[in-house]
Amino acid sequence: MAIQLFVPTFDVDACLSEIRECLDKGWTGMGFKTVEIEKAWCQYTGFPYSCYINSNTAGLNMAVEILKMQNGWVDDDEIITTPLTFVSTNHAILLGEMRAVFADVDDTLCLDPEEIEKKITDRTRAVMYVGFGGNTGRYEDVVALCKKHNLRLILDAAHMAGTRLNGVIPGREADAVIYSFQAVKNLPTGDSGMICFMDEEYARIVRKLAWLGINKDTYTRTVSEGGMYKWKYDVEYVGYKYNGNALMAAVALAQLPHLDSDNAYRRQLSQLYTEGLITCGDKVKLISVPEGCESAQHLFQIMVEDRDGLMAYLNSHEIYPGVHYVDNIEYSMYRYAEGTCPNARYASDHIISLPLHMRLTREDVQTVVDTILSFVNYRMKI
Ligand SMILES: *Cc1c(COP(=O)(O)O)cnc(C)c1O
């Protein structure tokens, strides 16, 4: 049977029972289960403020906008970011009318703090950091760097649901932390996400921005007036319709209790991949995970010289890996940074994400490992 990259797995009974509550109550929009998932997420992560939204992308857009507004940044001020990410990360900077300045990645595939420091100018306002594949990379060094240069820090934690650093969920040092609960992420819903803050004011604004700028949502209006729908509200911002809904929140609530055990299984499978592939020496480059990082292991990646050859070979054996990500600098609108991030370009050309999901068995991992071994040892052109 074919071995796929991602196969999202749901606790179907728990999902249906949570969804049934919404349908029985007649409340599928914002409120009810969205309030519950926000509370549950604050409890799980330790963040004081979490706002449930319809995607991580929406959260990134609002994070840039709010920080810009509250810190008095102007158009074309700079945010230092990584070229190795899903384009949402960098589009958020451009949509905020800011300049995306690319810094290179290190061997964790996260931004390299030394490379960030080289890119700081008097217009630099923030760092956009991606915990790649669930890896924290050198997050603590980046935090220290931001403190030293008085830069704000946005953490794109799309891959990091459940990641711990020295035993705690990282992010309290950041100004905004944004998770993705998209269909194939570690806590899958259909599409949704969470934006978390330490700062109450940011949280207050994000709630309005995500709801067209309206200063009271329909659910609060209904509940706080003892069931009487209070229709009067003010509109304070030109906002968006970025809110999450109760049906997606129902799925998130059903999945959250599985997040840690799912991630533990991801780490076990990753360990098996590592043990199987380390025998190849230099032919298969593994991604380093720093001491103290318990990665959510959204991805398990390797780099090989003939990536496209390996991809075709695996496909011919009904194994379907992926590539995360193409160096964003290769895309037209980011090409102005051509040649500035050689490590990211190298990774983009050589990286492969191996199958990793809850339905993958140890035997499947062995099959993938054996197939890779037979390619790199006997077929790969070097
Ligand atoms: C998935 C992903 C996003 C976007 O998340 P959505 O919830 O789909 O909007 C952003 N950044 C990274 C690194 C991602 O992997």
Task: Explain briefly what this protein structure is.
Helix content is 39%, strand content 14%. By secondary structure, it is α/β, with parallel strands linked by helices.
List the helices and strands and how they pair.
Layout: E1 3-4, H1 12-25, H2 33-45, E2 49-53, H3 56-71, E3 78-81, H4 88-95, E4 99-102, H5 113-119, E5 124-130, H6 139-148, E6 152-156, E7 164-165, E8 176-180, E9 193-197, H7 200-209, H8 218-224, H9 246-255, H10 259-277, E10 285-286, E11 293-294, E12 300-303, H11 307-316, E13 319-320, H12 342-350, E14 351-354, H13 362-378
Parallel strand pairs: 1-13, 3-4, 3-5, 5-6, 6-8
Antiparallel strand pairs: 2-9, 7-11, 8-9, 10-12, 12-14
Helix pairs in contact: 1-9, 2-9, 3-4, 3-7, 10-13
The chain binds pyridoxal-5'-phosphate.
Q: What's the β-strand tally?
A: 14
Low-confidence parts lasting 5 or more residues at pLDDT below 50?
Answer: none
Helix content: 25-40%
Compute the number of structural domains: 2
Under the CATH scheme, which architecture of the largest domain would be assigned?
3-Layer(aba) Sandwich
Distance between the termini: 31 Å
Q: CATH homologous superfamily of the largest domain - what is it?
A: Type I PLP-dependent aspartate aminotransferase-like (Major domain)
Largest sheet: 7 strands, mixed
CATH topology of the largest domain: the name is Aspartate Aminotransferase, domain 2
